[in-house]
Write a structure and sequence with these properties.
alpha+beta; 12 strands; single chain; 350 residues; globular
């Protein structure tokens, strides 16, 4: 399912560098001489050159860095996990990044046929931590349209219809993870940053580095807490126990972000001007009939009408249902997706 280095590296090198003569010779060498030594030299030297080329470009920081690239005149995303170059002081972090990268490859490969999963095109396995190549996402991440509008004057706020469509797409792919496999896949890190958008604002879920399959016959797993602050279900944080319902909770937080435009990683000022989590503060404001304070004002720039206001309230109630403190009170993701599809169908039919 994965293209190995000797297939993808010559293409990457040809497109990512201006050294066309060198790369053509590398490709020619591989085609003519298929001996093990030639293949080993190609993957080793090609991998080093690719890493050097990437080092001279700009990327997005995190546990990995994303770069824009070209593959056979096709735009791609190159994903490079931080290795010992960045993590010299921590062998544990390096091992963890390597493990996360391998998980990303495995689960991205298993799920890449779904329309709303960012497709893995190939990987380079000869670097210290594999380098991954994905299809491009024309409109970048959902983060950019929620939090970074002031820094990107060319970006316009997402319309209500686009937000509902994005929610439908993400619910669709989470339902796929939970129901399409004999062992359900728990993503464990659903958040706006890893939801990428194509040219039509269709959502593509990415980053399966923390994903895990439920053991056959088991209903829960125990593991150290992994994920992102503000998105982690309370029972997971408290008891280190989880199942698919933690994805429902994280998705509920994403729905709240789509509705409020606020970052759940940053503590919210509550009614008493103290700081608490997004879910707690929103519940408090609803109890005090201060709903208008939490809705993203850009949602009303294209006008208001009664059905839109009703949908926004239903969307909010669904998000709060998903973020119920007790996992047993949260809906199944398939039911959430059904309700969101009904909202979207209502929007496009009017």
């Amino acid at each position: 399912m994965i293209n190995f280095p000797f297939f993808i590296l010559p293409l990457l090198l040809r497109e990512l560098s201006s050294l066309s003569t060198v790369t053509e010779k590398m490709i020619s060498c591989f085609r003519v001489n298929k001996k093990d030594q030639a293949m080993e030299n190609l993957t080793r030297n090609g991998g080093l050159l690719l890493e050097k080329l990437i080092a001279f470009t700009n990327g997005r920081e995190g546990l990995y860095i994303l770069y824009n690239g070209l593959l056979q005149n096709r735009k791609v995303i190159v994903k490079k996990y931080k290795d010992e170059t960045y993590l010299k002081d921590s062998a544990i972090k390096y091992d963890r990044n390597l493990e996360d990268c391998i998980s990303d490859i495995v689960f991205s490969s298993q799920t890449k046929l779904h329309n709303h999963v960012l497709k893995l095109l190939g990987c380079c396995l000869d670097s210290s931590i594999p380098i991954l190549v994905f299809e491009d996402a024309e409109k970048r991440s959902l983060d950019d349209y929620i939090y970074n509008l002031n820094n990107r004057p060319d970006f316009r706020p997402l319309s209500w219809k686009n937000r509902v469509k994005i929610a439908v797409d993400v619910a669709n792919v989470i339902a796929y993870l939970h129901t399409a496999f004999s062992r359900p896949i728990v993503h464990r890190n659903i958040k706006t940053r890893i939801i990428l958008l194509d040219e039509d604002y269709g959502a593509k879920l990415s980053d399966f580095s923390l994903s895990i399959s439920m053991p056959e016959g088991e209903t829960h797993l125990n593991d150290a807490v992994k994920g992102t602050i503000g998105h982690i279900a309370p029972e997971y944080a408290r008891e280190l126990t989880f199942n698919e319902k933690i994805d429902v909770y994280s998705f509920g937080v994403v729905l709240l972000v789509l509705l409020t435009g606020q970052n759940p990683c940053i503590p919210f000022p509550d009614i008493e001007h103290e700081y608490s989590g997004m879910v707690f503060v929103i519940n408090k404001r609803i109890e005090n009939d201060r709903l208008e304070e939490i809705i993203d004002h850009t949602l009303f720039e294209d006008g208001t009408w009664s059905e839109k206001e009703q949908q926004i309230r239903a969307f909010l109630m669904l998000a709060l249902h998903c973020t119920s403190k007790d996992p047993e009170d949260r809906p199944e993701i398939t039911d959430v997706g059904k309700q969101l599809r009904e909202m979207y169908q209502s929007l496009i039919s009017n």
